């Protein structure tokens, strides 16, 4: 029986782990599928569009040809012409006149664009041009942004739990180290005495026999026999209930014996896991200085790795780019030469946005607490003092 029960316990444990991880994996998988479908859609629509050279493009070439004819051998005069005319002409030019859409809207380029849409970064260097692409971009963002926020909230619960437990374990370790340093020989001896007393107390609290109960309860002998037997019986029942293990719950046997009921119980547990999303963030409470330090270290690690394939960026520019990305500001002033390599860094972006989201939530709670203190302080100052009238 023991050999057959162990595989069943292992299967039940695996099922519990699977259904506990299922909601988190469901959200992440949905976001990945949504990003891939968007990449296929935009690469097909924007990449296959025809570039129509308008009349503005022909005027641009004509004005550029006139300016080039007026150039002279004097460099100072050419610089003045460039500042006045060519600079103005280039600002009026459109990027579609010089770039092939298929070079921009590849699968990886479209995937990078979709990530910037539902993460609300929006660099601005890649954007839809066709009317259908613009409409689909609005619809895509309308469903993608809530899905991304749901993933952020769900993963934020996991990170908040990990950070809270790590911080609590660090505080416990710190308190133990301080207690060991402050513990002198006298206090340690007192602790040993207390331990010995506790052990002796445990020995006294062991279950007693009927004869031992009668010996330590002399008042029972003076009572009538029926009352004496009833009190002895009640005392034995109380002793037995304290030291015996609780019986197996009948509901568990019912669930295990009936697979349909077990399946319903599993589904209810999965639904409860969905309902618990965002609860850990409300309980999260660590020093905000620690969160700022975590963000600084997290961005510094990426700033040290990113210049390996983005050779135009140094550590400071990469640090600025990562900060602008994780905070979803996305100016677009720093452009990537190899966005497909940065897509493999997408997991870093999602986790980083979650860390920044947790830090913002923590700062928001601290700010609300500060406002409460200020309002209560101002309310106490404005309260009129009670007048004492003579009797």
Automatic annotation (TrEMBL):
Q: Which GO terms describe its biological process?
A: stabilization of membrane potential
Broad class of where this protein is predominantly found: membrane
Which top-level group of life is the source organism from?
A: Eukaryota
Provide the organism lineage as a comma list: Eukaryota, Metazoa, Chordata, Craniata, Vertebrata
Q: Can you give the residue ranges of the Potassium channel domain?
A: 103-159, 294-364
Q: Provide the GO MF annotations for this entry.
A: outward rectifier potassium channel activity; potassium ion leak channel activity
Protein's name in the database: KCNKI protein
Q: Which residues cross the membrane?
A: 21-45, 104-123, 135-153, 286-306, 318-336, 342-363
Q: Which Pfam families match?
A: Ion_trans_2 (PF07885)
Compartments annotated for it: namely:
Membrane
Q: Would the keyword Ion transport turn up in this protein's UniProt record?
A: yes
Sorted alphabetically, which InterPro entries does this protein's record hold? Answer: 2pore_dom_K_chnl, K_chnl_dom
Q: Topology with regard to the membrane? A: Multi-pass membrane protein
Family under the similarity heading: Belongs to the two pore domain potassium channel (TC 1.A.1.8) family.
């Amino acid at each position: 029986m023991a050999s057959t029960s162990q595989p069943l316990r292992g299967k039940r444990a695996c099922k519990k782990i699977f259904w506990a991880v299922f909601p988190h994996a469901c959200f992440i998988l949905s976001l990945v599928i949504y990003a891939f479908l968007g990449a296929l859609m935009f690469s097909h629509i924007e990449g296959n569009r025809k570039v129509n050279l308008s009349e503005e493009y022909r005027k641009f070439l004509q004005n550029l040809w006139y300016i080039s004819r007026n150039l002279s051998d004097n460099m100072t005069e050419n610089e003045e012409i460039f500042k006045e005319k060519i600079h103005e002409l280039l600002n009026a030019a459109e990027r579609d006149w010089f770039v092939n859409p298929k070079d921009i809207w590849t699968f990886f380029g479209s995937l990078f664009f979709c990530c910037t849409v539902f993460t609300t970064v929006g660099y601005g260097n890649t954007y839809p041009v066709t009317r259908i692409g613009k409409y689909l971009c609005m619809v895509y963002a309308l469903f993608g942004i809530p899905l991304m926020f749901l993933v952020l909230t769900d993963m934020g619960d996991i990170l908040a739990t990990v950070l809270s437990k790590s911080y609590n374990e660090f505080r416990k370790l710190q308190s133990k180290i301080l207690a060991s340093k402050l513990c002198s020989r006298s206090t340690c001896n007192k602790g040993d005495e207390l331990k010995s007393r506790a052990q002796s107390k445990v020995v006294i609290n062991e279950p007693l026999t009927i004869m031992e109960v009668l010996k330590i309860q002399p008042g029972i002998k003076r009572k009538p026999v029926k009352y004496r037997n009833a009190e002895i019986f009640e005392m034995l029942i109380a002793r037995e209930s304290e030291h015996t293990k609780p019986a197996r719950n009948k509901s568990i046997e019912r669930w295990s014996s009936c697979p349909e009921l077990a399946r319903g119980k599993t589904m209810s547990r999965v639904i409860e896991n969905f309902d618990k999303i965002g609860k850990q963030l409300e309980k999260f409470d660590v020093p905000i200085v620690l969160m700022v330090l975590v963000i600084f270290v997290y961005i510094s690690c990426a700033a040290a790795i990113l210049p390996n394939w983005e050779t135009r960026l140094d550590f400071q520019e990469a640090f600025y780019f990562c900060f602008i990305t994780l905070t979803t500001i996305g100016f677009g002033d720093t452009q990537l030469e190899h966005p497909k390599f940065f897509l493999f860094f997408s997991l870093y972006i999602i986790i980083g946005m979650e860390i920044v989201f947790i830090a913002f939530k923590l700062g928001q709670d601290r700010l609300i607490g500060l406002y409460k203190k200020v309002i209560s302080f101002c309310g106490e100052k404005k309260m009129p003092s009670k007048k004492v009238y003579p009797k």
